[in-house]
Write a structure and sequence with these properties.
Structural class of chain B: mainly beta
Oligomer: heterodimer
Number of strands of chain B: 21
Largest sheet of chain A: 9 strands, mixed
Distance between the termini of chain B: 45 Å
Strand order of the largest sheet of chain B: 5-1-6-8-9-10-11-12-13-15-21-18-17
Shape of chain B: elongated
Radius of gyration of chain A: 23 Å
CATH architecture of the largest domain in chain A: 3-Layer(aba) Sandwich
Helix content of chain B: under 10%
Radius of gyration of chain B: 20 Å
Strand content of chain B: 35-45%
CATH class of the largest domain in chain A: Alpha Beta
Shape of chain A: globular
CATH topology of the largest domain in chain A: Rossmann fold
Order of helices and strands of chain B: EEHHEEEEEEEEEEEEEEEEEEE
Amino acid sequence: MSKIVTDVVCPFCGTLCDDLEVSLSDDGKEILEVYNACAIGAAKFLHAQASDRITRPRRRQEDGTWKDISYDEAVDYTAKMFAESKKPLMYGWSSTNCEAQGVGSELGEVVGAVMDNTATVCHGSTLIAVQDVGVPGCTLGEIKNRADRVVFWGCNPAHAHPRHMSRYSIFPRGFFTGKGAKSRKMVVVDPRCTDTAKTADIHLQLEQGRDYELLSAIRVAFRGEKLPDVVAGIPKEKIYEVADTLKEGRFSVIFFGMGVTHSLGKNHNIDIAIAVTRDLNDYTKAAIMPMRGHYNVTGSGQVWGWQFGFPFCVDLTRGFARYNPGETSANDLLMRDEVDSFFSLGSDPGAHFPNESVKKIANLPSVCIDPHITPTTAVCKVHVPVAFVGIEVGGCAYRMDNVPIETRKVVDPPEGMLTDEEFLKKVLDRVREIKEA
Amino acid sequence: MAIITLNPIQKPSLLLEADNIKPDVFAGKSLDEIKALHVFMGTDQLTLGEFFEVSGDSGATAADTKIVIDGDISRVKYIGMKMTAGEVVVNGSTDMYAGAWMQGGKLTVNGDVDAFSGLAMTGGELIVNGNAGNYLGAAYRGDWRGMRGGVIRVSGNGGSDIGTFMRGGEIIIGGDVDVHVGTHAEGGKIVVKGDAKSRVGGQMVKGEIYVFGDIEVMMPGYQYRKDVDLEVDGVSGRFALYEGDMGERHPKKKGVTIYGQLYMKY
C-alpha cells in the first residue's frame, strides 16, 4: 500500500496551492503520483524523479564538454569568482525558499554584489508603480469570499496559473459568493482571444500596447466625462458599460500580468491601473493584485525589502543598498558591460532574458545553481544541481498576495546532494576565508 | 573664471561613478588634491588621477570654477551631480545622471547624455547639444517631486518618461520624443519641437506641454478648448489648446478647476 502525504504545497507558480496530495512508494523514497495539482505542478514533482537527473556539480572544459566536480570544488570556484569580481551580478532568487534568500543576501553584502530577482523581467514594473502611488491590496481568501467583479488584465490564468480561477477568483463558492461563478462578472482585457478570455462575460479585445489609454479612458468614464468615440480599438459605449459594471459590484478586483507589466509603458500601465482601483474605492470596495509567476518571487521581494529596503535591483557594491531599475537591473547591467561575473540561482535567465544579455553571460565567469538542465546551464561555466525546494526540502514561500506559506518536504534528495541554503552557506564561509587571508 | 581641464586617459573596464566632478568639490583645491579625489568602479575605490589628466587652476569658490572635460566619457556617471554653481563643459558624451539633482550653475554637454539626466533638478541650466536618454528631468524612483526648477535644453531627441512628476522648471526638446511626456506632472513647462509618440500628459494634474509636431496617439482624457496665438521659445504660431487629464484629480483655484494644458501647433 502506498503512503499518502497530504497538504503538500506546490512549488511552481505564485498561486502556491496548498492542497496537494502525493503518493509515495512503500519505502517513502519515490513519488508515484500527485493528486489535485495542475499539469505543470504535477510534472514538477514527477520530474524530480527523472532517471537522467544531474546529481553532482559540473564544470565546463575548454572544449565545451562537462566534467563532474565535487561540491567543494564548486564552492571554491564560486567563492573565488566573487572574491575576484569588482561587480558581480547575483540573479534569480525566485524558485527557492526565503531561508536561502536570506543567506544569499548576506553573501551579496559580503562580496558587494548587485542582486536582482526575476521581478526584473516580470512584475518589477509593478513594484516601481507601487512605490510611486501605493497599492490597495487584499488576500486571495477575501477574493474567494467577496469578489463579484473580477478583471483579468493582460494575463491568462487558464494557462499560466491553472488553478487560480478554480481555487480563488472565479469558480469557488465563498461566504458571500455562494453561487460561485454565477455570482461573479468576469472581465478579460487582452488583445488575444485566450482560453481565459473565452470564459469571460466581457472580453475587451484592445489594440496591443494601448492599455494605458484604455485604463485612462475608464477613469474618465468613472468621472462621467466625455470620451472619444473609440479608445484603443474599444467603442466608448463599451468603456462606459465596463466602468458601470465595476462601480456596481460589491467588491471588484483587478488581476494583471505580463501583458501590461512588460508591454509599452511598463510601470505606468500599473500606475494607472492602481489609480483605477483607487477611483473605484469611491464607489465600492476594490483591490488590485499582480499575478506573480515563480512560486517565491514575492518572498524574494519580502526578504530584500526587509534586509535592504528595496524589493529588486539592489546594488550593494558601495557597501549600502542603492536601487534604480534601468541602471541596477540585470539586463541593463549585462548589456552595458557593467558587471564582471554572473551568478544565477532559482531562475532561468538563459530562457527569459533577451539574446543580447545571454551572450554577455556566456562571456563572463558564471555559476548556475539549478536542479534542472536549462538554457542558463548551457551558457554558464559551472552548473551546481541542488535539491528541489518544496519537494526535497521545506522552507518558507510567499504567495502572490504576500501570504507566507511553509512548504513541505515530501522525499529525500538523492544521496549527497546539497540544498540551495547549504551550498550558499559553504560559499559564504569560503568567501570569508579568502577575504581574511 | 578659473578653468580646470580633465582629459580622459583610460577607459574604465566597468562604469565609473565620478560624483566628485563638479565645481563645488574642485573649488579651492590644488591639482594634486583634485587628482586624489575618489571615484568608484564596482567595489573598488580609485582616484580621479588614474582616469584623467588634470590641468589648469580651480577658483576660490564654485561660482569661480569652470571644469572642461575634453574627450569621451560615455562610461562615466554622475557628471555635475548636485552642483550648485560654476560651470561644467563636456566635449563628448556622458553616461547616466548628468546634472542629476542639480541646484545651480551651468552644465553643457556637447554630445549625448544617457538616462536620468537632470533628475529631480531644482535649479541651474543643463544644455545638451545631442540626444538625451530616458527619464530626463523626471523624479527619482518613488519620489513624487520631479524637476522643480531650472532649464533643460536638448537640441536632439529625447527618450521616454520626460518630466515624470514634474512640478516646475522648463524642458525644451529640439527633436522628437518617445512615450510618456509629463506623466503625473503638477507644474512646469515642456516644449517638444518635433513629434511625440503617445501618452503625452497622462495623469497630468497641472502644467503645460507644447508639441510643435504630431502626437501619434492622443490620451483619451484631453478635451479641445480653443485656438490661441502664442510665442513659445522664440517661435510664434497658432496652437490648439487641450485640457486634461480628465481622469485625474484636479485642484480648484477661486472656484475654477485647474487642468493640465496641452498646446498643439497647427
